[in-house]
Amino acid sequence: MLSRVRAGSVSGGLPARVRCALNPMAAGEGTRVLRGHHQRGTSGPQSARVKVLYDGLCPICVTEIRFLRFLQRNRPGKVAFVDISLPGYDVEKNKDVSYEMAMEEMHVIDEKDEVLRGVPAFAVMYSAVGLGWLGRLMMWSPVRPLMDKAYAVFARNRLKWTGRAEECAKGRCEKKTALTGGKREK
Q: What is the rounded distance in angstroms from the CA atom of residue 64 to the CA atom of residue 55?
């Protein structure tokens, strides 16, 4: 399972899967754009080329997802946004990325069904909604180390910075259940 989840190291250039995602034309002339609709909290259509796993209880994350959905309005089905905070989150439909793994850092499942996390995940996500220039900038070798460090600080502190530290234990939120009256439990 962990062998499928890669941070996508950059040595001498971008990994092929990121290059392809940042420049869809690199996939070849025969590449077709798949169409469909996405739904909040579901894995989206089978035809979605990229799945973005996000924390629907994180105000910063939700704001960014709203913006990305706005950008995607003319590209339906290109990205499926999957809210990991909903009780129906299905690990098996999302390449075995557990709730805990997804809470630690951003995860994206690309068009080749590979799991990317951290900065490479953002690069693929931004490219899929038409912000390929931003993804390329983030992955550019002079900028990438700074992006990795900045994102690591954000990922480590986002629960505290969004006022959710008390709801979460050891940097990870616990799932809500009906038995606890909306409180979080392990």
A: 11
